[in-house]
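Tokens in:
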């Protein structure tokens, strides 16, 4: 019997393997990964500097330990080069393997900015534990590199900014928006985060972008589009990720922003599924939705495990809060769906220090929220309010 092959051992690939093994102890499982297959929790990468965590401390299990725990074969350092959907085989740098079912959990790639200057190649990004190690090495190599510029004040950029500031670095955060987290957070919380990050000593350069990066004696200069120049030691890009579509596209699998999957996580190719950062969902009839967060990949993994075990199960993609791990102001956010965001409004209330923002669409229906600071009780209560009319809330 051919195995179920999972490509990728990030949180998506490993969570699926774990969930599947809870239901099925015997079906052969082969995980193929281009990296070393060590298990780590990726969200910890943007909270590890202030805690002075070395990469090895973030790795909780090796590939060999995972293989034993999962009753699986794990091929490490093996890149899948192509998929033949007719013969149902994958060709990897370590050989060709036939599959019974194939799951793509190949993640996303950092978006590379086209920036001028003789040091543009020095821009780093952190989307893997190896990147984190590289980043730490670069800081050590430059004698502790006290100055770090971060491009992009989204979730990951804000988290790194707060974390690096907490570790004693002098941080500059650059974003074309007028406030941090502008795409995810309600305006009141976005402003609250700006104040909290500034109070932490982070230099916010908003409403502008990096135009060029050049080497100077002992560091780098970044010329911003607003005409100013900032000196720094390291530039970290956190401008976003793009689902990795290469394998799927080469195999003629339908892709959009991500690898398009149906309600069961199935791609356009027979016996092939996708989950995690590489997948694109349809949610409430709205297409082109990528959900590069832990909660949706866990929901997909739970459903897939049942589907792969012979009980077709639709993925439950109900809203779950995105937790922004900025100790200066921790936020929990459920952004309104983009089609609803255009026609509605945010309503803000405060209870002591806590600010709660509810989003009502043009029909007066609650479609999103943001709260800071937050705890489980308020998150659960706000989740329960979603979908309710404006009069019954607050
Ligand atoms: C710094 C940071 C902080 C984050 N914080 C949060 C948070 O607080 N909350 C939250 O919900 N989300 C957070 N996220 C997002 C979350 O971590 C990701 O959504 C999730 O980890 C993605 O997992 P994945 O398995 O889909 O992808 P990845 O972790 O990227 O794994 C992809 C796997 O595929 C393998 N691979 C790729 N191509 C091939 C190939 N051709 N052949 C073989 N193997 C291949 C790779 O080696 C890797 O093993 C954060 C992300 C980052 C970067």
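Residues out:
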């Amino acid at each position: 019997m051919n195995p179920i092959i999972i490509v990728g051992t990030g949180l998506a690939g490993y969570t699926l393997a774990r969930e599947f093994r809870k239901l099925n102890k015997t079906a052969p499982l082969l995980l193929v990964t281009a990296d070393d297959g060590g298990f780590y929790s990726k969200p910890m990468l943007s909270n590890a500097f202030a805690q002075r965590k070395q990469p090895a401390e973030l790795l909780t299990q090796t590939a060999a330990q995972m293989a034993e725990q999962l009753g699986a074969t794990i091929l490490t350092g093996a890149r899948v080069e192509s998929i033949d959907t007719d013969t149902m085989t994958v060709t990897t740098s370590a050989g060709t393997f036939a599959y019974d079912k194939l799951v793509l959990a190949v993640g996303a790639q950092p978006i590379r900015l086209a920036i001028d200057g003789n040091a543009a190649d020095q821009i780093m990004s952190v989307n893997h534990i190896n990147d984190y190690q590289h980043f730490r090495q670069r800081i050590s190599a430059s004698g502790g590199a006290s100055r770090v510029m971060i491009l992009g004040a989204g979730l990951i950029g804000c988290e790194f900014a707060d974390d690096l500031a907490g570790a004693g670095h002098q941080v500059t955060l650059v974003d074309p928006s007028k406030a941090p987290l502008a795409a995810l957070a309600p305006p009141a919380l976005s402003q609250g985060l700006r104040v909290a990050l500034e109070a932490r000593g982070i230099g916010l350069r908003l409403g502008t972008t990096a135009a060029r990066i050049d080497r100077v004696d002992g560091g780098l200069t970044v010329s911003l589009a607003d005409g100013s120049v900032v000196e720094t030691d390291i530039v970290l890009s956190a401008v976003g990720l793009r689902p990795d579509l290469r394998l799927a596209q080469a195999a003629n699998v339908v892709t959009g922003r991500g690898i398009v999957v149906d309600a069961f996580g199935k791609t356009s190719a027979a016996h092939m599924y996708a989950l995690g950062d590489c997948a694109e969902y349809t949610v409430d009839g709205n297409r082109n939705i990528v959900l590069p967060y832990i909660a949706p990949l866990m929901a997909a993994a739970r459903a897939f495990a049942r589907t792969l075990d012979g009980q077709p199960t639709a993925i439950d993609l109900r809203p779950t809060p995105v937790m922004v791990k900025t100790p200066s102001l921790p936020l929990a956010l459920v952004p309104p769906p983009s089609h609803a965001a255009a026609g509605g409004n945010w309503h803000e209330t405060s209870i002591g220090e806590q600010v709660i923002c509810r989003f009502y669409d043009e029909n007066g229906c609650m479609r999103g929220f943001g709260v800071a600071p937050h705890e489980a009780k308020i998150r659960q209560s706000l989740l329960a309010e979603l979908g309710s009319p404006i009069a019954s809330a607050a």
